[in-house]
Each structure stands twice: as C-alpha cells, then as structure tokens.
Amino acid sequence: METVNPANGTVGPVGSVGSVGTGGPDEAASADAPVRVVLVDDQQLVRAGFRMVIDSQPDLRVVAEAGDGVEALRVLARERADVVLMDVRMPRMDGLAATARLTEAPDAPRVVVLTTFDLDEYVLEAIRSGASGFLLKDAPPEEMLSAIRTVHRGDAVIAPSSTRRLLEHLVTALPEPPDGASPAHEALATLTDREREVLVLMARGRSNTEIASDLFVAEATVKTHVGRILAKLGARDRVQAVVLAYETRLVRPTA
C-alpha cells in the first residue's frame, strides 16, 4: 500500500503504506498511551469487525463509534481522538462532508476515509476535504492497522489501486496554469534546490531512509527537509505536498 509521510515517509506512485507515505516499519504510538481511534460507519457489523481487530493491538484502542457524519461530529466534540476511520457513504451526512467539518480545527484528529468504492473522485474529494488517508474496506487487516499507525505518525496513506489514476487525473484533467502564475507555483518557488529534490523523491514513493541513501545524507537531515517543505507549501501532510508536486508538473507519472 502506498503512503505519504509528512516528515518521515514515502509516496509510492503516491500511495502505499510505504509509497506515498512512510517507509519504515510500524511503531507503537506511545509506550504509555495507545492511539485513540474513533470508528464512523453506518453498518454496525463493520464497526464491530474493525473494533475487534483494532482492540487486539496493545498500541491501539477504539474509544468511540458513530453511525453517520452528524453523530460523528457530536461524538468527536466530546471525545478526544487521534485517528478517525470514516466511511464515505452514510445517511444524514456523508464521510467527506463530515471530514471537511472535522478537519477545520487546527487540532483535528487525522482522518482515514474508508470506502468500498475505488473511484478517483472519492480520492480527490477525500484529500480536498482534509483526509490524511484513503483505504478500501476490503484491505487486509494488517494494512488497516498499518494505516492507522502511519497516519498517527503524521504520514498519509492512499490505497495503491487508486494512486496511479489519481495522479493521471491530476496531470491530464486539470488545466495547466502559466509558469509561476498559481499560488501552488509561488509556494513551490520558495523551496531550495535540495528541498525540490527531496519533494520529487517523496512523490516517487521514496521513504525517508531511501531518500537519505539516494542523496548520501543522514535520515535526520531528510526529516528536516520534509518538515520545511510542508511548512513552505502550507501542506497539512505529505500527501498534500505530493499532490501539489503533480499539480504544478514538478513531477509527472512514470510510464
């Protein structure tokens, strides 16, 4: 699965818990406090299955559930969460609308959007809504667990099957603005040559460890570069930075 890691990751064709995101092994969020997860899905059996898998892990804990977007916002107003697993299709308020509302706050939890529909528009809308991840419900349990840990660390996760089409959509469907004319181009212009080099490698699916090896520098140096890239681009996480790299044509999908 491909992933994007804000300060530590990869972007495999822009997605994979190791591609568009992190590149290292999963780590427990904290020796003391488990990652607090909230489940939002209109199917109770689905929530029960997710809860069983998540609660089986010593470093993860489901702290609340909700059956739709409206209930999710109400629950999350009183329950602190680190990561929210958010279904797309739900009554009253769908997951994309709920994600947009939820991520307006500066201290909002990370959101991983879950769906049975592997469609480009869902991926794009999930990212635009502020989600840090996008996964299919039929992903293996270990991928879901890895996604929760990855996103909690500040990385982003995109289902690998959606990655290629997402990038193709970005470079073929969006109009190409004149060089330097868009806010994205202006933000990109603030990067140093080395930071642009690191961003390209991020978008190519390289982990921090791999980038460090490619550039013959320490991994800590790469993490510093990634942090500065996110700050200069105004990106919430790595996936948004990678999407910007493709939108500005700094990076193009490989054949």
TrEMBL record:
Pfam families: GerE, Response_reg
Domain Response regulatory: 36-152
Transmembrane portions of the chain: none
One GO-annotated biological process of the protein: phosphorelay signal transduction system
A GO molecular-function descriptor: DNA binding
Keywords attached to this entry: DNA-binding, Phosphoprotein, Transcription, Transcription regulation
Domain of life: Bacteria
Residue ranges of domain HTH luxR-type in the record: 184-249
SUPFAM superfamilies per UniProt: C-terminal effector domain of the bipartite response regulators, CheY-like
Record region (Disordered): 1-29
Family matches, as InterPro entries: CheY-like_superfamily, NreC/VraR/RcsB-like_REC, Sig_transdc_resp-reg_C-effctor, Sig_transdc_resp-reg_receiver, Tscrpt_reg_LuxR_C, WalR-like
SMART domains associated with the record: HTH_LUXR, REC
Entry-annotated residues carrying 4-aspartylphosphate: 87
Annotated PROSITE patterns: HTH_LUXR_1 (PS00622), HTH_LUXR_2 (PS50043), RESPONSE_REGULATORY (PS50110)
PANTHER family per record: TRANSCRIPTIONAL REGULATORY PROTEIN NARL-RELATED, TWO-COMPONENT RESPONSE REGULATOR
Protein name per its UniProtKB record: Response regulator transcription factor
Organism whose genome encodes this protein: Xylanimonas allomyrinae
